[in-house]
Task: inverse folding
């Protein structure tokens, strides 16, 4: 059922991309300092999954989509913030032929994206939430509500990772533009920061841009380029997946979820 498209193997060493640092510019207005943004603590949805009896004439994808639809009370509109628009998409991130329904929204002064991922465990048991390991038990993700993402398949580990950007506003005078990988493996979600750009503004409104490594320690622009290029060097297959997100308002939900899944697998 799964198809990998637009795929090729990177075997050579990519040329280093040297990125120019942003020049500082003066603004007329002073920057007003605001409290540092905090991330929303992890909140688990406690709704009970519903077993599904699917019609025999449905194919496997149709049966799993019915599981998702029948368990709408588990994943629909589980926002911890009132008045926030939640978006939904159907995927198969780990390519194990078990569909996931993702709910996500962006809110807060830090522009954090909160997401819940539910995977079809089986037709009999319904959905199970896929979370990060306990040591990183938050439901904060990079900006996954996007039209497409680069897919990296590691032939050695069998892990599919997806490249996303993450703009984090730490305060009015400090922000990060991070490149992160998101993957689902062995029932757990993983988010890893690869590198980023840190921008600060001083009391005279002068901007300073620095490159940072996965631990947010300062590095030079050549090291930054090497880190990003290393994501594509080795025994990897590179492709792209599209996403169809919807707030599921005023639409045929089963039909929209079906189109979302086939958009993800590029059909």
Result:
């Amino acid at each position: 059922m799964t198809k990998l498209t637009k795929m090729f193997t990177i075997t050579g060493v990519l040329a280093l991309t040297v990125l120019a640092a942003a020049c500082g510019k003066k603004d007329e207005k002073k920057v007003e300092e605001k409290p540092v943004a905090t991330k929303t603590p992890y909140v688990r949805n406690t709704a009970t999954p519903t077993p599904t009896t699917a019609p025999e004439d449905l194919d496997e994808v149709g049966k799993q989509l019915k599981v998702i639809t029948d368990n709408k009370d588990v994943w629909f509109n589980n926002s911890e913030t009132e008045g926030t628009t939640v978006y939904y998409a159907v995927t198969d991130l780990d390519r194990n032929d078990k569909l996931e329904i993702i709910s996500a929204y962006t809110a807060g002064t830090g522009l954090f994206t909160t997401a819940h991922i539910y995977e079809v465990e089986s037709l009999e048991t319904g959905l199970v939430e896929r979370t990060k390991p306990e040591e990183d038990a938050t439901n904060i993700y990079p900006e996954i509500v996007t039209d497409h993402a680069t897919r990296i398949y590691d032939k050695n580990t069998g892990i599919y990772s997806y490249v996303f950007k993450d703009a984090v506003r730490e305060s009015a005078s400090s922000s990060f533009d991070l490149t992160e990988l998101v993957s689902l493996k062995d029932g757990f979600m993983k988010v890893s920061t690869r590198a980023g750009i840190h921008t600060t503004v001083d009391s005279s409104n002068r901007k300073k841009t620095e490159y940072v490594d996965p631990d947010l320690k300062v590095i030079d622009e050549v090291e930054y380029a090497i880190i990003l290029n290393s994501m594509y060097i080795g025994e990897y297959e590179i492709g792209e997946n599209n996403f169809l997100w919807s707030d599921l308002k005023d639409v045929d939900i089963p039909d929209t979820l079906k189109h979302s899944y086939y958009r993800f697998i590029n059909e």
Observations:
- Residues 1-56 have pLDDT under 50 and may be disordered.
- Helices lie at 60-70, 72-75, 221-230, 253-264.
- Residues 5 and 239 are 7 Å apart (CA to CA).
- Residues 253-264 form the longest helix (12 residues).
